[in-house]
Amino acid sequence: MKSLSIISTTYEKEKGANLDECLGSIFSQTVLPQSVVLVADGHLNDELYEVIDKYKAEYPELFVFYETETNNGNWYASNKAIELCSTDIIAKIDSDDILMPTYAEKILSAFETGIDICGVYIDEFDDGTKALLTTKKTPTKHEEIYKFAKRRNPFNNPGIAFSRKLANEIGGYKNMVRCEDYDFVVRMLMAGAKGMNIPESLVRYRTSKDNMKRRKNFVNTKWFIISRYRIHKAGFSSFSDFLIPSAAQLLLFIMPSGLTGKIYKLLRK
Asked: How many CB atoms lie within 10 A of CB 165?
């Protein structure tokens, strides 16, 4: 069976309880990964260091922690995490994601079929009430994934797994403020990656009002359009594939927040 590392990135504003729950879910897998790599994008708060020290003490040979001197962005921290891995497969989650116990086991089984990139369904839940909000499903077969990618990311970023070799060949994540995950996926597909999504919710994704604020702001809208323009210029998508989602994103940006939230919920079904 192929070897697996699970990587994550964090930063000073993350909550210690969220990171603890994330790492706890990784080390509770039915099949443990060969390594767990956490990269801090800049210096952290004392609460986070306490959580990290706990797992370093419990899993000294399995847990790798690296801290950058300055805040360089998630793309940089993700590339550093990839650099610290030597396994065939790398799975990536955020520091407040929660993995279901069989996540690693099922990712490893999926890669035995010869794929290069794999995602899973995710359950989005309210961080305050803990209530399930929606299950975000994605296309499962490679042909559907490739077609879907021309306009939207065909993988849920939480829980995505990929070939370390191919990720290094395409240069990892690009220096982008937003949408670096979508850009990464398209470049993997353009490089010949065969993809699939496991049709099962294997990640719990924490969401709050702050998520909507991040989606509904000028910077996010700007990079949404930039990323799709780059993908179009690279020859992966048509002009209409660029224009239609970009126009829709602009419309969502100027809409009232309440209406925007309802539309996002529809898009996630």
From this structure: 10
In this structure, are strands 89-94 and 63-67 parallel, antiparallel, or unpaired? unpaired
Q: Are 38 and 63 in contact (CB under 8 A)?
A: yes
For 59, phi then psi, to 5°, come to -130, 65
CA distance 203 to 121: 7
- Which H helix or E strand runs over 16? helix 16-26
CB atoms within 10 A of CB 28: 11
pLDDT tens-place values along the chain, 269 residues long: 799 999 999 999 999 999 999 999 999 999 999 999 999 999 999 999 999 999 999 999 999 999 999 999 999 999 999 999 999 999 999 999 999 999 999 999 999 999 999 999 999 998 888 899 899 999 999 999 999 999 999 999 999 999 999 999 999 999 988 889 999 999 999 999 999 999 999 999 998 766 655 556 777 888 889 989 999 999 999 999 888 888 888 887 776 655 555 555 555 55
Whole-number Å distance between alpha carbons of 64 and 56: 8
Alpha helices in 90-238 (DSSP H): 103-111, 142-148, 164-169, 180-190, 209-215, 218-233
Contact 135/100 with Cβ under 8 angstroms? Answer: no
Q: Distances from the Cα of 67 to the Cαs of 64, 70, 72, 79, in angstroms? A: 10, 9, 11, 13
Cβ within 8 Å of residue 4, ≥6 positions away: 33, 34, 87, 88, 89, 90, 91, 104, 107, 108, 161
